[in-house]
Amino acid sequence: MKITFLSDNKTENSLCMAEWGLSVLIESNGQKILFDVGASPLFVQNAQNLGIALSDVDAVVISHGHYDHTEGMEAFCKINKTAPVYIHKDAISEAYGTDRNGRIEEKNCGMRWSGDFLNDIKERLVFTQYTVPIKDNIVISGNIESKGTMTETFYRPSQDGQMKEDDMEHEQILVVKEKEGIHIFSGCSHTGILTDIERAKEIFPGEKIISLTAGMHLYPLSDEEKKKTVESIYDMGVRYLFPVHCTGIKAIMMFKEKFASNCKVAYAGASYEF
User: Fold this and answer.
1) Could you tell me the residue ranges of all domains in the chain?
2) Chain mean pLDDT for the chain
3) pTM of the model
4) Nearest Cα to 52, choosing from 86, 79, 85, 19?
5) Can you identify the CATH homologous superfamily of domain 2-273?
6) CB burial class (10 A; 0-12, 13-18, 19+) of residue 153?
């Protein structure tokens, strides 16, 4: 297993730039999987600076339908002409967050792919809803029920044009099984990181959790709720933790205190091998 971070909110690598977004290159079981494509073409430039050939990517997995995980797709498709793109069937939509007063914001934070671009790549799109294996040991979760564990509220337009609360069931995780156990990848964990981990354990029951790479969207939670989440993840037996993107600085500090050197604060340009 090799994990390389091509886009994240932070960087310590002079060859890479940072942005509010996420893109991770996963190399396992003879496959190169690109998990999310960042908020812009920046991840492509970072990959080039790192000497990574995105033309060799075998498949793309989109975690959910927000711009900071999807906006670099057009740039990627100019380089890689063949990799299938796995995306939930309900992900392609506008989406809107809320401000501190609970009002729906005007800026679209959802997907911004044009109709022309969608038409250009339609043969490459693999729409998911339920569990989908890319290979025997590389599996996309499909729907993850929120179970009331969402940490932020989003809205999207319904068929009648009215705004409805987004259940975020278009968010999906990627689970990779290797000899020692499983590796879990989550983009933002909008339905709850603990829910995501439980879903991964359902896909590969009885397996040890070797690593968890996730934006966890913990920053809106109280310190007590953050602490409970950190303790729960530790008690689930996660060996290595890579908190990224939307996890939040305070939560990351709590993870570092609990997991010590097994918590790796990843950044654009960082690479880890197991």
Assistant:
1) 2-273
2) 94
3) 0.96
4) 79
5) Ribonuclease Z/Hydroxyacylglutathione hydrolase-like (3.60.15.10)
6) middle
